[in-house]
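Re: your question from the hallway

Yes, I did run it. Sequences:
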Amino acid sequence: GENVEQHPSTLSVQEGDSAVIKCTYSDSASNYFPWYKQELGKRPQLIIDIRSNVGEKKDQRIAVTLNKTAKHFSLHITETQPEDSAVYFCAATLPGSARQLTFGSGTQLTVLP
Amino acid sequence: GAVVSQHPSRVICKSGTSVKIECRSLDFQATTMFWYRQFPKQSLMLMATSNEGSKATYEQGVEKDKFLINHASLTLSTLTVTSAHPEDSSFYICSARDQGTQPQHFGDGTRLSIL
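Structure:
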C-alpha cells in the first residue's frame, strides 16, 4: 500500500512570512495529491490539490509543487496570517475504483502575530 | 459545492452502549464513502471503505463485527460502534466522493466519549 511521510510536525512562523510543508510518498503510481486544513475539532477542508500530470498549482497565497521523480510534493503558503494557524495534512491517492486517501501525519502550523 | 452531513456531532454514553453515526451526501450521489478515526493530535486513519449495496472493506486491524457499516443508498452510510468501551472514544469522520471524481468531501465528525 501507499505510505506518506510529512515534515515538519510543527512549524511556527511570523505573520507575513512564508511556510513550507513537505511530503513524500512511496508508490510511484499515486496520481492525486490533496492538501487539507483542519482546525481543532473541525472537519478537514480541502485547500488545494494537484494531479500527477501537473508540476505546480497556485491559488492566491497557496501553492503546491509536485516532483514525481523524487516522489515528493510540498505546500507553500505565502504572506501567512494568524488565521492560517491549523493542522495541515497532505494525502496521496492511488488510481483504482476506491481511490482511498492515505494521509500524512500532519503539521501544526502556528502563525505568530 | 458538495456537502456531507454527519450526525450526531457529539455522543457521550456509558460503556456497553451501541452508537450509530450517520453520514449523508446532501447534493450528490456517493457510491463510495469512507470512515476514519482520529485520536487527539494524530492523523486520520482509514477504518473502512463503504460501498453502496455491498459489504464494506475494512482496513487491517479494524474489527468488522465491532464497527458495523451499512451503505444502503447512494446518499447514506451508517457506522455503528457496537458495545462501545472507553478505548473506542475518538473523533469519527466520514467522507464521500461524487461518482468517479475527486476530491473527497468530509463530514463535520462525531466526537464519541464512552464513560
